[in-house]
Structure formats: C-alpha cells, structure tokens
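To fix ideas at the outset, we first show an illustrative case, written as a sequence plus integers encoding its fold:
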Amino acid sequence: MTKSPIPAAVDTEYHLRNAACVPTAALARHLADLEAREEDLTVEHGSRAHVVRLEEVRSEIAAVKKVLPEVEALELRIGNYPAKKEA
C-alpha cells in the first residue's frame, strides 16, 4: 500500500474537504489502496485490534467516496487540476 496522500486524522472527511492541493487522481489511488487493504483485512483473521483496523479502513473508504465528487467539482471550478478519470 502506498503512503496516504492525506494526513492521518480522526476526521478524514474534514481533511479531505480541506485538501485542495490533493488532486483527484491521488484520492482515487488512495481509495484503491484502501480497498485493497480492506480486502486483505477481510481475508485475515485476527485479534480485536485487527477488527478495529478493518473498521477504520472501512470508515476512511466511506469518507473518501463521499468527498471525491466534491473535490472533482472543486478542481473543475478552480481549474488547478483537470478532473480526469483514471483508466
């Protein structure tokens, strides 16, 4: 998994909304990494800490999915980054 393009924080949604410097492509890659990690965690069986980490990953996935359209719209509006879908 690659390093997160956003700072680790309890309120991921807040940081994503305020991360105008994070291009849509980076968020899309981060989302793919999180989904891969979720799959790995789902296959693994472990301790309570493992279950907590799985829930944290799922929570972050939900936050990224919720904020990604807003970031794309912002990019189009301000013109800093062209909003492109990765193939």
